[in-house]
Structure formats: C-alpha cells, structure tokens
Amino acid sequence: MRALSAEHAEDMQALRDDYEQLFASILATGTTQGLFNTVDLGIARLAMMEMGTGASHWYRRDGRLSLPEVQLNFVSLAMRMLAVTDEFPLAIKELPAPLVIASEPEPKD
Predict the structure, then answer these.
(1) Which of 33, 37, 55, 96 makes an SS bond possible with 59, Cβ 3.0 to 4.6 Å?
(2) pLDDT single digits (tens) 79-106
(3) Who contacts 81 (Cβ-Cβ below 8 Å, separation ≥6)?
C-alpha cells in the first residue's frame, strides 16, 4: 500500500475495508446464530484473512500440498478458531476450483 500513489492507495484501502467488513459481518452473524464460539472475533478475523493473503508468499503448485489440501487445512484451522464442531464441512471434491492468475509461477519439473 505504501508504494501506491495517494489515489490508488485510497482505492485499495476502500477495497480492503470492504472485504474486512464482509469477514466481520459473517463472523458476527455466525456468532449470533450460535454457530461460532471464540474468545475474540477480531483476532479470529485477522488470523483467517492473514492465512489467505499469506499463502501467496509460500504456496507453489509443485509444493508439498496441492491447493485443495491447503484449502482443507485452512478450513479446518478456521473451524477450530471458531470452535465449530464439524471441522470438515466439505469434501475435497466440493471445493471450488481456484482460478490460475497470470502472475502465478509455473510449476517446476
């Protein structure tokens, strides 16, 4: 964000505020409905968002885990953070297929 022009930083801040609010709203709704039980929703929200953004630094298609395996691990960790009893609500075949973006490194042979 610091490397962006003032105009672009403002746009990115608005996008970041939107997705943070989406996370906060989902967590608040789940807590109100009795689905989630955690000590601090704000910390849980930040941890889940960091898992998603942090993966871009270390995940590689040719790495130890496939993307669906990473997804399932992240779902399991999020469910544990939120004290949800069914830690694996989806089967691996039910996970959405991720998009491959142009900047993603090609797997090594």
Answers:
(1) 55
(2) 989 998 776 667 777 777 766 666 665 6
(3) 38, 44, 47, 48
